Structures are given as C-alpha cells and as structure tokens.
Amino acid sequence: MDWVSVFTRSTKLAALFDVLVDQGCPAGEILRNVNLTVDEVHSPKSRISLAELMTACENAIRLSSDPHLPYRIGTSIHISAYGMYGFAILCCPDFRKAMAFAELYHALAAPLATIEFTEEEESRAGSLSPMRAPQPIRKSTASSPRCRSAFIYR
β-pairing, 123-130 with 113-120? Predict the structure, then answer.
C-alpha cells in the first residue's frame, strides 16, 4: 500500500483533533506536518493521505500523556462515519455477520490495520494488526500500541 497516495476523508483525523483540543493541546501542534488547516479538519471536502493520518497519530503521542487516548478517540467515531460500509455493518442482523462483513470489506475504510475474526465451536477471537507502514512512520508511530488501537470501532 502506498501511504502517501492513498487518500481518505478526514473523519479519523477530526476525531483525534477534537479529543486532543478538549485536552488542551494546541491545534497547530496537532496538525504539525499535516496538510490541513484548522478550518479544514471537519470539512466533508477534506482529504488526507494515510501518511498524514499517521503523522497526526505521532503528534498525538507526543502531545498527550493520556494512556486512554486511543480509546477516547475510537469511541468518538460512530460506525456510520464510514459511509455505506458503516451503514452496511449496522444493517447486519447479528454480531457474527457484522464481523464477517467488516473483515471482508475492511479495505473500504482506508484501514491503518488489518482485522481478522476466527470462530471455532465455543471460542471466538479477533485480532487487529498494524499494516506495514513506511520505515520512518513505522519506527515511531505504527509500532506504538497507543496508535495501533486509536481507531478501534465503537
């Protein structure tokens, strides 16, 4: 995957931005090295690369000492923010079918991680693994457990 040329809506960045601003972090520092202005963060027209999203995660790690930050960010994003993919998950009749659908079509959500769900008789398991980011990003950000779990679905 080319982390620089794959663009996505700024929904995940906006969630990260809002949580950090609420914690008192300066907006300019949250967006450091991200090609968006404060006014563009919540615009439905805004697009960012996955590399810029990872840069924002790196900024969040630097700015916040909150060990629960990834969960605060993740729970602030409603599944419907993922458009038709999110609505399709909401329409699934049960959790098992929702997870099967989510796994099958996860690439539609411009993912930062791969998801996998397995089921055998009485046991069920899920895993979330970071996608392989370019070396400069991978060293400082993608390998951070705080960043890996920043966008867990609510």
Answer: antiparallel
Q: How does pLDDT run across 83-126, given as a tens digit for each residue?
A: 888 899 999 999 889 989 988 988 777 777 788 888 888 888 88
The C-alpha angle with vertex 81 and arms to 83 and 15, in degrees rounded to 5, equals 150
Sign of CA dihedral 33, 49, 128, 42: positive
Q: Mapping DSSP to helix (H, G, I), strand (E, B) and coil, where does residue 94 land?
A: coil
Integer Cα distance of 142 and 152 in angstroms: 14
Bridge partners (DSSP) of residue 53 are none
The pLDDT assigned to 150 comes to 41
Kindly report the backbone phi and psi dihedral angles of residue 73, in degrees, each rounded to the nearest multiple of 5, phi listed first.
Answer: -65, -50
Phi-psi map region of 45: left, alpha, beta (phi>0 left; psi -120 to 50 alpha): alpha
Selection from 3, 144, 154 nearest residue 82 by Cα? 154
Q: What is the chain's length?
A: 154
